[in-house]
Each structure stands twice: as structure tokens, then as C-alpha cells.
Automatic annotation (TrEMBL), chains A, B:
<dbReference type="Pfam" id="PF03435">
    <property type="entry name" value="Sacchrp_dh_NADP"/>
</dbReference>
<dbReference type="Pfam" id="PF16653">
    <property type="entry name" value="Sacchrp_dh_C"/>
</dbReference>
<feature type="domain" description="Saccharopine dehydrogenase NADP binding">
    <location>
        <begin position="5"/>
        <end position="146"/>
    </location>
</feature>
<dbReference type="InterPro" id="IPR036291">
    <property type="entry name" value="NAD(P)-bd_dom_sf"/>
</dbReference>
<dbReference type="InterPro" id="IPR005097">
    <property type="entry name" value="Sacchrp_dh_NADP-bd"/>
</dbReference>
<dbReference type="InterPro" id="IPR032095">
    <property type="entry name" value="Sacchrp_dh-like_C"/>
</dbReference>
<feature type="domain" description="Saccharopine dehydrogenase-like C-terminal">
    <location>
        <begin position="150"/>
        <end position="396"/>
    </location>
</feature>
<protein>
    <submittedName>
        <fullName>Saccharopine dehydrogenase</fullName>
    </submittedName>
</protein>
Amino acid sequence: MKRNVLIIGAGGVAQVVAHKCAQNNDILGDIHIASRTLSKCEAIIASVHEKGAMKGEGVLKAHAVNARNSDEVAALIRETGVDIVINVAQAFVNMPVLDACIETGVAYMDTAIHEEPNLICETPPWYGNYEWKRKEACAEKGVTAILGVGFDPGVVNAYARYGIDTYLDAVASIDIVDINAGSHGRWFSTNFDPEINFREFTGTVYSWQNGAWQSNTMFEVGKEWDLPVVGMQKAYMTGHDEVHSLATNYPQADVRFWMGFGDHYINVFTVLKNLGLLSEKPVTTAEGLEVIPLKVVKAVLPDPSSLAPDYVGKTCIGTVVKGTKDGKETEVFVYNVADHKDAYNEVGSQGISYTAGVPPVAAAMLIAQGTWDVSKMVNVEELDPKPFFEILDRIGLPTRVKDASGDRAWNA
Amino acid sequence: MKRNVLIIGAGGVAQVVAHKCAQNNDILGDIHIASRTLSKCEAIIASVHEKGAMKGEGVLKAHAVNARNSDEVAALIRETGVDIVINVAQAFVNMPVLDACIETGVAYMDTAIHEEPNLICETPPWYGNYEWKRKEACAEKGVTAILGVGFDPGVVNAYARYGIDTYLDAVASIDIVDINAGSHGRWFSTNFDPEINFREFTGTVYSWQNGAWQSNTMFEVGKEWDLPVVGMQKAYMTGHDEVHSLATNYPQADVRFWMGFGDHYINVFTVLKNLGLLSEKPVTTAEGLEVIPLKVVKAVLPDPSSLAPDYVGKTCIGTVVKGTKDGKETEVFVYNVADHKDAYNEVGSQGISYTAGVPPVAAAMLIAQGTWDVSKMVNVEELDPKPFFEILDRIGLPTRVKDASGDRAWNA
């Protein structure tokens, strides 16, 4: 049975992962946290102790690591003796961390697709450019690698699998809908790393429709969604990781991702983008300083983890699957509603970090217990969703289903 | 008779100054252009020759200078043997250039108030913080220094003086109105150096009303103005140089400055300001690079001088003076209308640079001829406006008057 966990990263999501690992250290064993900045890891450990989150006595330790250096990560894996790595650092380090896991033979997971700093929005399917190139190596060495196991991507992939397997004979479309109806009270802020947030929206919006990749621009295609708890919400078709694996695993279905945006967000984004301030390419100031505009925008925006104390309201994120069952048109929405204030009270983070950080801990528990220890590289829709939902129900992200028969717990 | 001119700066305004000096080199003699970047001076010289702008055979020469270094400027003044310095570089160099002129005993002029890079919007009257501290030194050495002799400040100060002297017994208010009804066809651009442009609007809006300095915020006070040629236009009370000298010279009058802004400009400005991207104070990126956000915004925006070829439409800038004449309430608007395309055809610059660059050349001609060679430091409203208008009429910026009796040339 695999256990002992190394968390890479020390941002808002890492904080949630650390708290949840601590709450389940009877299953997960030793917990190590590593990032470039040791003090950020130490602050997370202090917050875990402050909440009394450790279920039992055990190891909870901070380390400094340069995660862009695969050898350094491998050395840390060996030194700490961990069996599972939860990578929730910036998406730029996925490949070196994955390589370190393959090298040392331990389980790997992440919550977002690998990105190269100087490239935005490469050719679809995105996973094919980086992670999937290690499929063979994982299979050969029997390494379990679960890609994109945050909320979206992650839980929503499991929702798609579950909705299709349970309610459809044939799937026609998979629409992931992500609505944050919360309010942070700032004039403007992104909910997670501004650099990663904006990079999502500056490139081509890829969707999979009519059996082929389709291209749109951001905010070109909008649609109103009437959702549980959060009500009627406008969302826009957005490029997102899970489209790229779901389209590969369900090529017969249209696969789209929709994210909710208010007019204020769209206005700020549009101004910054049109001025060139979201560019990942360096510019030179009149004084001769070379600087990447997006990194300056990040520097002036609020640190997303600072939003947590004032964040109120709820998120609703889920997957709409449509198709036929017994020859009849059928539609099911599998979803979760999370509350920002509840998340803060429990782990000191806002809801967006909470929904992203809880799922990889559930996945780590399933690996530790052997259920998801599949000895190969997979995306979440390739795994049995039910044991995942059972743990998520228990540790803070209950799954619900809404269809023509009503709105209920998935296992009601 | 003073002659031979050194132009400091090589931006859009300097280009206009160089062309206009060349067109009048029978009066102005040798023409030297100096800036940090020699190639920019050389490009201006090439453009002067391309338009065949030199009235007669004569010197037109480029120099490299660090204008923040007063000794370097003084050395260049001695080397070139000039008698008049037209400073149209960034406003950060006013004081060292002025000191070099006092040191060498030559005439000085500029078109904008001195600024320190790290300070925005100091206590009023602004001139009192820097330039006016050299009044005594100028008087002692008999140095002619004409402050703020662009269009606004500059020509509008002369408009105020002329309107008051000619049409009023007692002045009650001076309102300067600056409307650019032109279109550059870009998504967004400032019309002159973005750094200076935005710095004008991020601080307190000072006006002089009811015999005291009043404070407002930018875009807080708006007013519709019905103007010749450009029609009904919304303008906002704005902090601006000329308020600070006119309030000192006409303390009995309310003195306000109004600048026209479209909703698009206001939206972009508001987003950038509220995010902190217009700050002159450095921030540190996640990678540890220290950078001033405003300088990055400048780096991504279009170079204002690049707008000229596509700029169409007109500017209307003038001064409304109100008061009493023979016991009756009287109001007069003294103004100029300039055309962007005409400016480009004549000197290769857009209208905003043109209106700023022509007046200091007229002033230089008046110094060369002795008319304005006053051997002390003055603001423009302290000088006889009529010879100034006569030259401006001839060299491209005719003065008009509109009042209850109609709309006419000032000397009709």
C-alpha cells in the first residue's frame, strides 16, 4: 500500500492539500511540503497546526526545492521516502516533477496541464504536447500518474464518466460549466494565480464539436445557464484542459467548457489584453529594462490567497451530459456546490482553492488504498468515479445529480 | 539680438520644433538638436531635409546629451554657441537644463512643468516647488526664462491675458478647455508620452476657486462645452500647469482647466489606475525583478509619434474668460482650431505635437528679435500676447475670438 506524500507548491491550493492530507494522515502517512520559498511552506504548516488539522501524530515537514530541476525533485523524493507526489505548483514544473516520479518510481498527480512559460495555447490535444509523451515510460515502470485531478479538470471528468455510464446509452455532448457566484469585495482580482488565469484566456478557445477541433476567441460564444443554488448565470466558451482528454476519450461527443464571467471581469480583461499587458513575451521599457507585461500585472494584483477572509458566496461547478437512453433524449447535470466561507473556516482558503485542492487528496487516498493505483498514466475519466465520489462526499465536496427526475445526492 | 537655438529632446514635439525652426532659420540661425539617443535627433534632421524645410542655408546638427546632467548641457551650450534653449524633453530634466542656461547666461524655455520621477502631483502652486525657485537667479544674471510656452500651458495663458486686457474690466473666471476631436484609429493610445499623460491624471485635481486651492479627483467634475468646429464636447476638470501660474497672477479669478475625454479613454484609464498599473512606485515581480508599472504600460502602448500618418480630425483649445465690462457681464472665448492631417502634411507630426511645438518656436523668434527678451523668468501671461499671436497666425496656429458679437480672427 502506497503512502507518505510530498506536496510540491505552497500557494492557495497547496494550503488546502496540506490541511486535507493532515486531516487524513492515518491513510496518507508522512506529509512533506516543498516549494522554492521555504517560508511559504512553513506558513502552511503553521496554519495546519493552528487549526489542529493533524488527525494523528505524524510527520509534517517543509523543504526548499527548485521544482524546475528534475534531479533536485528526485533527490527530495528519495530523501523523504514518499510514495505519492501531489504537484500543485505552477504548471510550468509539471514535466520535471513527472520525470522525477518516473525516475524514482513513485505516484504522480497534478491539477493543471503543463505549460512552457513562453508558449500560450499550443495545438490540441494539449496533453499530447507534454504529459502523454510519458505514457509509455509510466507503463514500463508501473508508475501511477493521474493527470489533472483538481476540480476542473478532475472531478468534472469523473462527473462526465459517471453521467455517461449511469444515465446514457450513447453520449452526444459533454459541457463542463464553472460558475463562481462568490464575491471577494476587491475592485478586481483573479481567483488563482493571475499569470495562469490570464494565460487560459488569451489564446484560442478550442472545443471539440462535430468530430473535430473548433477554434473560437475568448468571450465570442456566451450562453445563459440555469443552475442549482447560483441560479441563472452567463458563461462563455473557454479553452480548458479537460476538453483535451475528454475529446480523446469520447470522440463521438461534442466537448465544451464554459466559464462564468461578469461584465466587470470581461472589461478589465479586454483592456489589459488589447493593450498588450497580458503578453507572455518580453517588452523593453524606455530605460532598457526587459520585462514580461503579464508578470507585472500579476505583481500589482491581489494575491489570490489574500482574498479568503472576505470571500462570501458559492461556486457551482459540474458537467452536463446529453445523449440517449433507451432511445430517448436524456440530459443530466452532475455537480457540486461549494461555499467560500465554509472553506475559509475549515482550511483558511477561499472556495476556488478549496475545490482545486481537495480532489488530489481524495485521489492520493485512493492510491494509498490501492483502488486507483493503476500503474500507468491516466486522465480522471479513465478511472472508476464511485470510490472517488465516496471520499469527496466525506471530505468536503459532495456530488449531486440533477435531471428530469429531480435534484439529489448522486447515491441517493 | 539673440539667435542660434539648441533643441533638447527628440520626441514628437521636438520634431515640430525642429521643422518650425528650420522654416525660420533666417531669424533663428544655427539649429542644434540634442537628446539621449543621437539616432532620434538624426531622424528628425532627415525629416526636415526630406520636407525641404530649411528656409536658408545653415547649420542643423544632432548631438547626444544626458540632459539630467546640468554640466553636460552647459558644455553643449558653450560648444554650440547657442543663445536660446528650447527644452521639449521629458519634464524630468527641466531643472538641470534651466540651471545650465542660468550658468551659461542663455535664454531658456520649456512647455511643461518640472517633475521628479518618483513624485506625482505636489502641493500647489506647482511652479513654486521647482522653477520659481530660480526667479532670483534669472533676474540677477539677466537670463530670459519663459516657462510653459507650448499650447497648454503657453498659448492659452496668452489667450487669458489677451481676453482679460481687451474685453474685461474685471475678471471673474478663467477656464481653459482642451478638446481633441481627432481620431488616430488605434484601439487605445495617448497623444503624447504615456508616462507624462497618465501622471497628469493620477493625482489630485487642483483648481483655484473662491480665492483658494480646491481639490477634486479625476473625472469627478464633468461639463459639456459647445465649441466652434468640434461642437458639443464633454470635458473634465483636470490638474494642469497653467492653473498654477494663472491663479498666482489672477488670484481674484476662478481658474480651472478642462480636458475632453471619451468614455473609452476613461474606462481604460480607470482599469489601469485601479489595478495599480499607473503607479510610479516600483513593484517586485514573483521572479524578483523590480519594475515601475507605469513604464511597462508606456512600453506596450503605441509610440504617440507613430499615430501621425493616420490621424484625422481637429483640435479646439482655448480660454474662456468671464467678468464685467462697463458694468455688464461679459464672456469671451479665445481659441485655435488645428487639423491633424494638415500638421502631418507640413511637419510629419500629429496635431497634438504640432500645437505644443509651434509656440516655443514663435517665442524663440520673439526672443531673437528682442520683443520677449525680458531678462527674467516669466510665465506666458506676463508677456505682451499680441506679437506672439502675430507670429502664430503666420506660422500655423491662428488665434480666433468668439463672443456675443460673433466668431472672428482676433485682429479682425
